[in-house]
Each structure stands twice: as structure tokens, then as C-alpha cells.
Amino acid sequence: MHVPESTVTLTAREAWVAPAYFALYLASLFLSLESELHHWVTLVFVPAALATTFAPSVRRNLRAVLASFGLRRGHLRHGVGLALLLGVAFTVFQMTYGGRRDAIWELVRSGEVLWRFPVTFMLMLVMAGFTEEFFFRGFLQTRIEQLVQSQWMTVAIVAVLFGVYHLPYAYLNWSSAGDWGAAWGAAMANGLTGGVVLGALYVWSRRNLVPCILLHSLINAAPAMTLLNISISRG
Description:
By secondary structure, the chain is an all-alpha fold. It has one domain (12-225). The protein contains 11 helices and no strands. The N and C termini lie far apart (64 Å).
């Protein structure tokens, strides 16, 4: 298979580290769910440390490590426009069919959407939008593709793993708590479609992670803004 020039070539040892770490990480979530702040450790710093440790010595510098995740200058704009279009499409869908559509429309009618949406979007950029994309697309997708040697099979595999990642939360914390069947359904509904779209965007973006971070943040922003406990008093 032809590997695009924008992809950093990885060794088999580097590639196997990612799925092995994911398995350990998933098991740990069933023991203790973690906060968004904790994600910066488990989904960003630990994977970056592993990538550095298992990379050949010639690539053990910050620039090369970040490039292996897709954080680089090359093709920076490629995919950003598509990410914005997809973000708008997801937001419209959430306003029309999503489970929080009534709460979203209430914020639209009150005008609070004008400040809540940008605030929530910025929060998502430094929370799940960045941490989850750094891990799932930047770490897992790049490494698993090296093992599978197929872009689109890798997109499908990582999308399933993205859904499975939500399973501990669905089983232990969401409304589906305690019900394995409902938890599996909720986890896959939450992660599978988004995982496929984000994975495909990563391929389209020539392995630049920025469009995926942007789209993930836009997908999360509309429902998350209904959960903000910030209020602005109006005189």
C-alpha cells in the first residue's frame, strides 16, 4: 500500500504500543472513571511519552513526536473547510433530532447561545476536542494503520474502539448504568458515527490533526453549552 509522504513512518514496535496501551487504559476506566483534566495525563502526556520512548533515537525530539500524531505545519489548512461544514451539519442535526434539542432551542430563543456557544467551543478545544483526537486519531489511528496497512479498515477499527471507550461511562455513569445491553447501545451511538467521520476526516486531511480537533469541538459544543452552570445577569 502506498503510504502518503505526510505520514511519519513508524516501526512495528511503536505501532503495537498503541493498542496495548488502549487495552490497559480501558480496563482502568472500569475501575475508576476520570475527569476531563485527567484526560490530559492519560490521553496526551502518557501517549506522547510512549511515542518518545519507543521511537528510534533519531526521532526522539518534540517536533518529530508531535508530527507522528499529526500536529505539524504541513497541510495545516487541508480539511479545515470540510471540518467547518461537517460541524455545521452536526449542529443542525443536534438542534433538530438530538436529545438536547429543546434545551438548545431555549438558549437560541433567549439569546444566550451568542455567548454560550463560543465559550463552550473554546472549552472543547482544550478538553475532549483536543485530548480525544490526540489519542484516537493521532495515536491509535496512525499506529494501527501501520499494523493493518489499510486506511479505511483502520478508520473502521478505531471508530469501534472510540465507541468502546465510552462503554465504562455508559455502564457506570450514564442513564444506561447497570444495563450492559443499554450501555453498549449508548456507547456505540455516542462514538461510532463520530469516530467514522473523524477518522475519515483525518485521512482526508493528510494526517493533520487540526481539522479533527476543530470538528470534534464543534460536535460537542451545542449539547455541552446546555450544561454550563454560568449565568450572566441581565439588568
